[in-house]
Amino acid sequence: MTYCNTYVALYWQLLIVLLSNVLFIAFPHYLAFLHYLLQVFTERVIVLSTYCESSRIVFRSMTRVSF
């Protein structure tokens, strides 16, 4: 599994929803802080996957140019 995958962000979103529900049931007073940390990490994963995908598109368009 590579990090340059658009589905990585979707998997992380699903994991955060499930983990947030479990944390809310088990530790409701820690939910806000942990949810903030998970949200920041998810945003970084989304940015990374978007950057990798855009780099792939640029690389493909550059390799299609024939001289």
Total DSSP E strands: 0
Distance between the termini: 35 Å
Domain module tally: 1
> What does the radius of gyration come to?
17 Å
Structural class comes to mainly alpha
* Helix content estimate: over 70%
Low-pLDDT residue intervals, each spanning 5 or more residues: none
Coarse morphology: elongated
> What integer is the average pLDDT?
68
| Largest beta-sheet details | none
Q: What letter string, H or E per element, gives the SSE order?
A: HH
User: How big a fraction of the residues is strand?
Assistant: under 5%
Question: How many helices?
Answer: 2
Keywords: Membrane, Transmembrane, Transmembrane helix
Transmembrane segments: 7-27
Task: Give a quick rundown of the structure.
The model has no long low-confidence stretch (mean pLDDT 68). The protein is 82% helix and 0% strand. The chain is mainly α.
Explain how this protein is built.
The longest helix is centred in the C-terminal third of the chain and has 34 residues, at 31-64. The protein has one domain. The protein has helices at 6-26, 31-64. The model has no long low-confidence stretch (mean pLDDT 68). Helix content is 82%, strand content 0%. Helix 1 runs antiparallel to helix 2. It is built from 2 helices and no strands. With 67 residues, the protein is an all-alpha fold. The chain crosses the membrane at residues 7-27. Keywords: Membrane, Transmembrane, Transmembrane helix.
